[in-house]
Amino acid sequence: MTHFDVFNGDADGICALHQLRLANPIASSLITGVKRDVTLLARVPARRGDAVTVLDISLDTNREALLELLGRGVEVEYFDHHFSGDIPLHPRLMACIETAPTVCTSLLVNRYLGGKHPLWAIVGAFGDHLPDAAHRLARCHALRAEQTHQLRELGESINYNAYGDAEVDLLIPPARLYESLLPYADPFQFILAAPITRALHDGRRQDMEMAMRQRASMVLPCGAIYLLPDVAWARRVRGVFSNHLASSHPGLAHAVLTVNAQGGYTVSVRAPIASPFGADRLCRQFESGGGRSAAAGINCLARDGLPQFMRAFEEVFSVGGAAQNASP
């Protein structure tokens, strides 16, 4: 029997898997990629009798591949917090999925494991831009302010590494970054022993310095849209810059766009922190769009689709749109 671990290459996916494998160490084949590489299940060559663990990628986006795996007799356990659509009822599927804007996959896994490795859940939550949830968990475990700050820096640095349009954009391949965590049940030991943490931190800081010099291309009462230049640092910084804008202006929505290899745009959207709804509704209007209510994106927005996106952004996050976002 072969076991496959399929996970988003961001902090949430990596930290969720790390918790599981600390609690249940098994040899597995790793399938991952950049943060936006979310159609990962189609890559799994599993056969009858094999098993697959999936973390932090949308079931709805991977529905066809999931059903094919189940049909081939593969056992699947699925942990995620993104839009799922209808969850299949199948004897070979165990689904731990919750899409509330206050949870991430690392927190779901922490709950599933009964809190066996909460410090890595805190790292994942900080990396997935859930500081309130991360701080609550840190207080539950009586972490000092300095320790909490260290875990936040680690989570944000791991998460930063996943941003880019291809692995060539990244500082370290996500699978190798995950494997570097394996010896460490204690993230503070990882911070002390692994020089990669400093490299990730310094790269993120330098790219943010470039991003902060940019001006918004469109400013609205409900938020702002940024079009970054067609350079490598812009592709790396897109998501982190989106999170920074959201934290700095919690009442506003933001979108950050970069030019992709197809000549269109890759889009990162953040709903207002004060009303974390609507990002997924906006992005699902476009082919290759998806995500969760507070944070979502579009893998490839055609260049001539930019005016339509700007109109939809305003419609979704205007006063009327915000009310519709929050309604049941």
Largest sheet: 6 strands, mixed
Head-to-tail CA distance between termini: 44 Å
Q: What shape does the CA trace take?
A: globular
Number of helices in the DSSP assignment: 13
Uncertain stretches: none
- Beta content comes to 15-25%
Roughly what is the average pLDDT, rounded to an integer?
Answer: 94
What does this structure look like?
The chain has helices at 11-23, 63-71, 105-112, 118-127, 131-140, 145-161, 174-181, 187-193, 196-211, 232-248, 279-283, 306-317, 319-326, and strands spanning 3-7, 29-31, 51-55, 75-80, 93-97, 218-220, 223-227, 253-259, 265-270, 289-291, 295-301. By secondary structure, the protein is an alpha/beta fold. The chain has two domains: 3-202, inorganic pyrophosphatase (n-terminal core), CATH 3.90.1640; 218-326, Diaminopimelate Epimerase, Chain A, domain 1. Strand 1 (3-7), helix 1 and strand 2 (29-31) form a beta-alpha-beta unit. Helix 4 (118-127) crosses helix 6 and helix 9 (196-211) crosses helix 10. It is globular.
Briefly say what this structure is.
The chain is built from 13 helices and eleven strands. It is α/β, with parallel strands linked by helices and 328 residues long. The chain has two domains: 200 residues, inorganic pyrophosphatase (n-terminal core); 109 residues, Diaminopimelate Epimerase, Chain A, domain 1.
What are its keywords?
328 residues; 43% helix; Diaminopimelate Epimerase, Chain A, domain 1; alpha/beta; inorganic pyrophosphatase (n-terminal core); 13 helices; six-stranded mixed beta sheet
